[in-house]
Write a structure and sequence with these properties.
InterPro entries: ArsR-like_HTH, HTH_ArsR_DNA-bd_dom, WH-like_DNA-bd_sf, WH_DNA-bd_sf. By secondary structure, the protein is mainly α. It has 5 helices and 2 strands. Strands 1-2 form a two-stranded antiparallel sheet. The longest helix has 36 residues.
Length: 106
């Protein structure tokens, strides 16, 4: 099943995993220590994040370390940017209204 990155970040546990591994690559066991869910559930979340190309697994000996693929996160930022620009326009208009009101009070 092909998933997109927005399906991956829709789950709060997966978002928390992304925050954890943003600082450093971690093994599934190290990630599981931060959650009150089974190791199998963590593996399922890691599989979904990997399918969405948000994680880069790297084999080191017997361990697999998962690292964040920051370039893929840019897709999220690009999508959010359209809303950020609209908000900036709205805030600028609000600033102008407030400035006008403040000027009339004087």
């Amino acid at each position: 099943m092909r998933r997109d990155i927005f399906q991956a970040i829709a789950d709060p546990t997966r978002r928390a995993i992304l925050v954890l591994i943003a600082a450093q690559a971690m093994t599934p066991n190290a990630i599981a220590e931060h959650f009150d869910i089974s190791r199998q559930s963590i593996s399922k979340h890691l599989r979904i994040l990997s399918e969405c190309d948000l994680l880069a697994p790297k084999q080191e000996g017997r361990e697999i370390y998962y690292a964040l693929k920051i370039d893929k996160m840019k897709e999220i930022d690009t999508w959010l940017d359209q809303f950020r620009k609209r908000m900036e326009v709205s805030f600028k208009q609000l600033d102008e209204v407030l400035y006008t009101l403040k000027s009339k009070k004087k």
